[in-house]
Amino acid sequence: MSAPRGEFSSRFGFLMAASGSAVGLGNIWGFPTNTASNGGAAFLFTYIVLAFAIAYPALMAELIIGRHAKANAVTALRGLARGPLTRALGGMVGYAGMITVSLILSFYAIVSGWMLAMTMASLANLLQFDAAADWLATGSVVRDAIFTLGFMLMTLWVVTAGVSNGIEKWASRLMPSLFIILVCLIIYVFTLDGAMEGLRMYLVPDFSRMLEPGLVVSAMGQAFFSLSLGVGTMLIYGSYINRRENLPALGRMVTLLDISVAVTAGLLILPAMTVALNLGVPIYDEQGGLIAGPGLIISVLPALFDQIGLAGILVSLAFFILMTIASLTSSISMLEVPLAYVVENYNTSRRRVGTWLTLGITAISLLIVFNFDTLFDLVVSLTTEYSQPLLGFFFAIFAGWIWHRNGILQEIRQGSENVEHTMFWRIWPVYVKFVVPVAILAIYLQTLLG
């Protein structure tokens, strides 16, 4: 007998939780520099088109399967099976998703721990605790281990409180805070010398690059991965949606929110980088490309904040609070994937399961911390470049080829009675059956072939 399941109590709560899962560190540091390096607004336009043309249909597949099954990914996919072979495949995909998302969380917790440490460093600077600030801002095995554990405990605290009292409650507080801090930082950065150069880099299109295969594949990958697809997080959140809700409308709003945060982050990061360049801070790597990823967050931007005095300390504090919020809203959705499976199949309390899962994932994180140069990039590559897109492919196969079309229609009708007469139903079944799997395979082959 399964333990009682939670449910989102409101549409707003679901939207904040789902968009929080989608909005992570990659949206804030990866998307802006990816855009600037791939034709500016030409990439931006391509990304927006593909987010709705490819990522939205894939998102809908997970949400529909999740709400239909009202269960974890393993149970949900097995429930769609037509025979022993597809049942075994469903179990394999579900288990692989749990392993993949747990490994993603293991390295994500390390980077999120950096964000938490930098937040505390900014606070220590504000209070003039210089020695503490220097230790907090300087990477070390001890610091990284402590703050990785601290971040995982924060994630555990939210998730074990349940769906409505934990995930929904905190997402509904954190996501609006993220938007407010992001907008305030943009307004401030726009007042600094050099900001308009970054804005031009971001928004002026290089249309000559628009049809480059590399740009299209890169934009498709950004659109797909920015929505946390392929590892069951959106399936789990879909399973907590009330049956009265209109799923196509919810999916559109989540996609729009995710795009909005990514695009808005570009209005902060690129101007901030050119402001830094204007102040003598290098923003290009040895190959001539814009510095992106953790290097951007823990070297370029802190150097910028140091250049602008007391105001820089306040801006730094606000920025790293923003990054910690973005980290936490994603990590709670990741931990929920394996937690939901164990709770539902073994009738165990969320707190007990969450504690053991947190200990296990933290142990993997610490193994990576103590062998960082060997393991970090390897785990990132195996999970996000190889496992995640392949799992996304199988989710599309289950929605497009294995689940009966009439069963899908009946599920969507529960929140949208006339859905069969809408443009969504005329297009989506064909998209998820043919276009989405081919698009995901294109990304996968591009990765394999380099």
TrEMBL record:
CDD domains, per the entry: SLC6sbd_Tyt1-Like
One of the record's GO cellular component terms: membrane
TM segment ranges: 12-31, 43-65, 85-108, 145-163, 175-195, 215-239, 259-281, 311-335, 356-380, 386-403, 424-445
Recorded superkingdom: Bacteria
InterPro entries with a match to the protein in the record: Na/ntran_symport, SNS_sf, YocR/YhdH-like
Record's bilayer topology term: Multi-pass membrane protein
Subcellular locations according to the entry: Membrane
UniProt keyword terms in alphabetical order: Membrane, Transmembrane, Transmembrane helix, Transport
Pfam families membership: SNF
NCBIfam families, per the entry: Na_transp
Xref: PANTHER family: TRANSPORTER
Protein name: Sodium-dependent transporter
Organism for this UniProt entry: Pseudohongiella nitratireducens
Lineage summary: Bacteria, Pseudomonadati, Pseudomonadota, Gammaproteobacteria, Pseudomonadales
